[in-house]
Amino acid sequence: xxxxxxxxxxxxxxxxxxxxxxxxxxxxxxxxxxxxxxxxxxxxxxxxxxxxxxxxxxxxxxxxxxxxxxxxxxxxxxxxxxxxxxxxxxxxxxxxxxxxxxxxxxxxxxxxxxxxxxxxxxxxxxxxxxxxxxxxxxxxxxxxxxxxxxxxxxxxxxxxxxxxxxxxxxxxxxxxxxxxxxxxxxxxxxxxxxxxxxxxxxxxxxxxxxxxxxxxxxxxxxxxxxxxxxxx
Length: 232
Known about the structure:
The protein is of the alpha/beta class. The chain is built from nine helices and seven strands. This is tRNA (Adenine-N(1))-methyltransferase.
């Protein structure tokens, strides 16, 4: 991949960014997303934040090679610490990490979100962690997308300020995704529930300790939730 052509998952993230946004891309890796958005005139300027030295240096080289150093500033920082109050950031993107890590980044950097109106996340796993963070911090889910690329399934969750409540099923699979119920969505949750059933079956041979019993009950509940959403 290069910064002239994004992967399918980053293209989907880019589509949720509003025209004229001021962007902070956290965990920017090689700064592909900011380079793409600035090159296409979709964002006014961008911060590319990266905590690891190697990708930080690579991002700086990519930005310079593209001639975008005046509009994209690459910063070596941990999470949202890449954002300064003077940046006037209104949109944050965080892609390519686990849901719990994204949620912890948002939690740790809550003060840096003061001017932010939209958060666009692309968790690789455990997307429910982001929905839980949103509910607990007065953000709401306003957009979701699920897609498959290179035999991996990715979710995108878009948040804006506001209050919302979601039931256990909505939190697990996504309040918008469960309504759209795309073929990728159905495939993902069929796979997940089959794996949960496999684990539950294996636990039948593991005795009846409290931990095992609790785990079996948890898996059974999840399997029933997925059966419910896939059968309607």
